[in-house]
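Sequence in, structure out. First:
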Amino acid sequence: MTPATARPRIVVVDDHRLFRAGVISELGDAVEVVGEAGDVPSALEVVAATAPEVVLLDVHLPGGSGRAVVEAFRGREPAVRFLALSVSDAPEDVIDLVRAGARGYVTKHIDGDELAAAIRRVAEGDAVFSPHLAGFVLDAFTGPGASATARSDLDLLTPREQEVMQHLARGYAYKEIAHELAISLKTVESHASAVLRKLQLSSRHQLTRWAVDHKLL
């Protein structure tokens, strides 16, 4: 796990050189950029050579796709985590990258501070998604990629508890969940307690890991 005071070591993968330069400039001293690439073959090479903590990855690349890069290191370099950064917010792109093993998916509308925060959270093992992608991620909770055990556990939760669980797993604060779902803070706290109790988990960090391990995020 990356210490809170350390700068995550990252590789930036995007086929537009000027966009890569802009991202690197925007992130500034929040991260340590150890490499960059513009296509799948060079991405595979630089990630293997530098072993970054986080790979900031576009979905569509020359020579293949972001999924191909993620799958190439799945199981081979477990310490390398992938965060998709794309202009695409198509459901198939989001779910495809997440099921391949990406730890998060944000769109290029994100600002520099938010992106830096997302990178840190992914480096620490959390899953991160742009808020407007919530519906697509929710589809993955009950889709064919979810394990039978996870689907059985989800049946223990009410529909509202499943919504709260989704936001908790993605790292939303209680106040943010209350705003997103238009419910009171006290109601969020009640649902959160029920979610953890029913899933036999003790913290939201364990919840995020549970969701990722069961291919729900």
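Second:
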Amino acid sequence: MLIRLMLFIFAMMPFTGHVDAGFWDQIKNPFWKPAQAMPPMIKVLIVHDEPGVVIEVKGKYNLFDPNTREHISTRFVGKRKFIQALKDGLRWGEEFPGVFQLLIAPEDFSSTTIVDGIEYQGAIYIYDIGGSISVVNEINIEDYLKSILARQYLEPLKEETLAALAITARTNAYAQALNPKTEYWAVDGRKMGYLGHAVTNSNTGIERAIRATKYLILSKSGMNSGAITPFLGAWGDVKTLPDAQASKITIKDADEMAIKGSHAAQILSKAFPDSSIVLMYKPGD
């Protein structure tokens, strides 16, 4: 109930802008166009410097060269083949001469692609880097959060504590998407515990908190200044995020606040002072 009250308050705020959806929104071709602007996305490295990988696409999909932004072809049936780098281009069952980067874009964005046995939603980028294969998954930030948080918070915590943790994790993802590690990917999924789509479970407390706080993040500058500044924040241990701002309270402190009746916004104001909660994206805008 407290989460719903908090969300009602923030739903009344004006829309503040959102992370660039990236290549998906920029594709212009007669074969495939998104029905509406995509929600905020993040590029996650899932395979790095391997001789090759098995990639299986289910259903209709499109192939693009992300380097030239050219549409290569539209395929109407699925495909499961080993992809590798050849001297003059990529080979995925068939050869793509002169193509050293390949984007697989499923027609239905909610469908999954299997990379070496792991299911992923969203777009799959394949890069030939010095004769080795690296693979990047471009995924909706909300779905990314469900994957990386699915196994982190298994102990029982109050719903407002979980809401505060979800908002912090989303803030980190937005900050990383806006300041990517390289031009090809924003985060290393192997280090973040990203295991694709199959690990998500809509019945867990943390996933309910992700849904309840959808698109809400922390900003250092707040709404009044006109600039949105997401930042890296960590609850206690900053080893996995060495550049992160450590929270002023622990998760245990946060849960004790929640037990006493504090809602997520109050918890976050204690954990990360001088920050505000803002809505980064409104579906349909």
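Remark: The longest strand covers residues 41-50.
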